[in-house]
Design brief:
This protein has 286 residues and is of the alpha/beta class. It has 10 helices and 8 strands.
Length: 286
Amino acid sequence: MTDVLSELGKRTLVMGILNVTPDSFSDGGRFYSLPEALAHARRLIAEGADIIDIGGESTRPGAQPVSSDEELRRVVPVVRAVHQEFPHIPISIDTCKATVAEAALEAGATILNEISALRFDLQMAKVAAQARVPVVLMHMKGEPRTMQQNPIYSDVVTEIKEFLRERMAFARAQGIEQIWLDPGIGFGKRVAHNIEILRGLGELRELSCPILIGTSRKFFVGRLGATRSEPLPVTERLEGTIASNIIAVLNGAQIVRVHDVASMKRALAIADAVRYGWEEEKYAQT
């Protein structure tokens, strides 16, 4: 596990998405049972995922919250099973609830992916600090049920940067040492805002933390790729997802969170060669 995270800054890490939910926008219900979830984790890892991100509560626009008990029921057995079979693979728990985070960390998770940037549950910072794990702080305007209701910014990149700077200061004051930053593509942003974030992502590098980006299959990808009045369906957003992630990587992102790991890994081979350099001896014929 430590060896994987030590690659940060040397190549782009791929976080494979495992939604244990009935209602996620892209794959809700497909991996809801433990056997289905574990089988999908195996596929993601076989395709080259560096990290598995497990979530039990949908955060799509308009999503309804679930109880702690229900979220625990969904994620803890999956975290435990993936960790037992793949102890070398870092597992990220995607939750805003301290009780869920604590149980998942005890079951084998080693990263906390927190879309509220430690704002929704006052106990979350304490759990994260005690566990001494990397914590992803994400920007979101509002909360999932309301975040797409007329989001307005005067300067989206500057506002995100200042928000993340403040949350970093808070996290460090609570004793959290390892911080990753996520600008929150699609979380309270219009299509134009997401474009501006990708264009200005380099400004977040000034905060001196690894940057995680999550554009996979999101609405703006479908909207920009459409050749008709309706957005592309989720199943037709692969090329746009790859393009948006490559732009993000060349502008500073170090971790990409995706559904389609194999395709993303092939594209990243090119982007990483440009960004980090290409070592010809690795590809020498024997």
